[in-house]
Amino acid sequence: MLLKQDSESETSVFPSLATLRALALASLFSASLSCAPDGSQAPGRPAEFPAPSPFLYVWAGAENEEDSDFLAVIDADPGSRRYAEIVASVAVGLRGMAHHSEHVMPEADTLFVNSFGAGASFLIDLSDPLDPKLAGSFREMGEYTHPHTFERLPGGNVLAAFQTKGEGNQLAGGLVELDPGGRLVRASDAADPVDPELRAYSVTPIPTIDRAVSTTSDMWAQAQGTSFQVWRLSDLTLLKTIRLPRGPLGYEQRDPAEVRLLPDSTTAILTTFSCAMYLLHDLESDEPWAELIHVMPWQTYDTDECGIPLTRGRFWVQTYAHSDGSALVALDISDPSNPVVVDRLTLEQPWWPHWISLEPEGDRIVLTSGAGATQYRVLVVRLDFQTGRLQLDTTFRDRGSDEPGVSFDRTSWPHGEAGPARPHGAVFSRPKQRHAEDKP
Length: 440
Known about the structure:
The two termini are 30 Å apart. The chain is mainly beta. It has one helix spanning 17-25, and strands at residues 3-6, 55-62, 70-75, 86-91, 98-101, 110-115, 120-125, 133-138, 144-152, 158-165, 171-178, 184-189, 203-206, 211-215, 227-232, 237-243, 256-261, 268-272, 276-281, 289-295, 305-312, 315-321, 327-332, 340-347, 353-358, 364-369, 377-383, 390-392, 406-407, 412-413, 416-417, 421-428. The chain is built from one helix and 32 strands.
């Protein structure tokens, strides 16, 4: 795999929402990574960071019909003798298109994950990372079906976006608050005639102003939401549904995807799968609104899409897939109304980056792909917090391999013999004490 690094402020070109959603929901072609790293070494860990996160938790979807979705534990301590080795895994007993986990490992030891295609969610107990256990599961919550996104609230409860109500894909779902054991606390409908095609896709709590913001994309790629919704967080009352303004290209508002908060924990930016960024204003007021602030090149959902973003300090990191070449892009958002591209990391072969999550107290980003040359591989990228530079960590690789990353195209796992799997949701563990028997 040849690595290309561009540090410049011109906009780069990125794969597509409907494509990645359709690829995730259908049986796809097989692809393996057959390239070599450029030999560059990962940058050193800044001295101000604590000990690195010792593990990576990767939620993966079974490829073979007779196999189960599972959570894998990868040794992520660069000083460990087992670095980049899959050291544990737990199957959930169901193959259902493993999709999202929580975006960041919570302070608690239980991680929520879902198999979206089956409408099933699971709680994985990671109190002993070397012996993960299935701690619970659920499907619908009352009328609400197909949970998609989980976000942890300050008190430990979980706020979830359920795509639909009832069977099929006829009715918009809503927001559901769950206790740490996955039991219903409260729920509210997302349906609003302001946007008849909305589906509850993702949700971002903003406790500082007693608000939550949700987005409206349809995982089944049948409806096309063009709005975001503002809720009162304390009781999940829907306050307002706001249509995103069209941009000059006419597609920017299509399929709102994710919302991330800036360092003040209040200012929010929303992305669309059609590669636009909107700054959200006056969320605490009766008249919230959105300002289009940045657009990345986009052609069609057959080839293009912007996936999961993350923020750290003054930098926004965005997954971007495009027919002309996919990339991980870093933007300086010091002025939130005027993001500036400062770096992009591209691979010569198409890799369709989709999911990213940042190490809680470090500089590493875990990345998985929706399709392309890396759809069976987990990669690690480092983010320089001073410059925004992105660099592939070529030391994170399978033992004896000359390819970066950990391959999930295999037939043996700690939980038993099974076929290949597609990693999707992935998070670093909190930097806790490593088990004594697993120290280098």
